[in-house]
Amino acid sequence: MAVLVTGGAGFIGSHTAVELIQNGYEIVILDNFSNSKPCVLDRIRTISGGDFAFEQVDLLDREGVENVFKKYSIDSVIHFAGLKAVGESVSMPIRYYHNNITGTLILCEMMQKYGAKRMIFSSSATVYGTPKSVPIREDFPLSTTNPYGETKLMIERILSDLVVSDGEFSISCLRYFNPIGAHKSGLIGEDPKGIPNNLMPYICKVASGQLHHLGVFGNDYDTPDGTGVRDYIHVVDLARAHIAALREAETRQGIDYFNIGTGRGYSVLEMVKAYEKASGLPVPYEITARRPGDIGECYADPSKSERVLGWKAEYDLDTMCKDAYNWQKNNPNGYEE
Ligand code: NAD
Ligand code: UD1
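The joint structure predicted for all components is written out below.
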């Protein structure tokens, strides 16, 4: 039996594919390369020392997706495929709703039809909206502030209705906090298109001289140094969480929700300092206005994941920064082919 990894050529999917292969899973990667490059597949093979099947299919292509389920014996799905840029989701809501929601509906339909009833879904801490307090627990109220976040929340609700209608399903929604870093080999990492929106890839490009300076979005938040605090997690720790979630989902039916973070928040200025230390390079910055929609503090209470999944983040901030730097140094232009 195989695990279908949708979006497996992407940032988190590629790191998870490596972990899956190294843990002896047979996997099939499905991706349409809308936000990734084919060369990542060979790099996954090189790092893992194993092989896998690949299908270039768009989740919106019902026949294409059905053919994948016909061709392989799939019993579980790790569902990463989706569009994820918050700003873009505001300017292209229909594209985001269609890709993320319709894509998931087609996937669920085929999972039910072909009896593959286990799913690990990539949700996000964005479903907590503006949290009432930190650290954030899984039972906190849910809300969103943009179409991207709305697609994550809607998919969680769709999956929850699905398990009510069909008790054979076993689903876990992993709510990721802020994944950063890269595989220690320096062969796979985050490769945003154009100017990065997120902090860590932006810092990497400033330190390497590709961007002039970092704009720090506000220093008047109610945080120790006034800048935004987030729960950064090493992408390899995050990848490992999927193996733990897959194993746990095998032991029960129904749906459950897990925070995947370290439980420790770092401010923007702490991130700048940590990257400077890890890389030995300066990261010039200027304080600018707050980014609309940003919150001051966001970090996880990951104790449920530790208790139920037996998973805990292991890598510290210095390792996250060193691995991000190593990836940036070896691939200054990402997966340029
Ligand atoms: P990514 O863009 O690197 O990977 C997503 C992959 O899905 C890409 O390879 C893309 O080509 C593919 N894809 C998109 N739409 C598709 C479709 N219709 N059919 C087939 N393939 C499709 O993103 P990532 O950072 O690896 O994130 C993976 C998942 O985790 C996403 O669902 C994202 O929303 C979620 N997530 C990411 C973060 C983060 O900060 N990176 C945080 C929380 C949640
Ligand atoms: C972003 C997404 C969120 C997603 C999360 C995890 C937005 C608006 N939100 O949030 O939906 O769940 O990633 O992937 O994109 N910062 C700067 N300068 C920059 C970039 C960021 O100061 O150039 C600050 C931000 O204000 C924030 C912190 O750095 O305080 C982290 O920002 P970012 O990496 O974009 O992540 P989130 O804001 O958590």
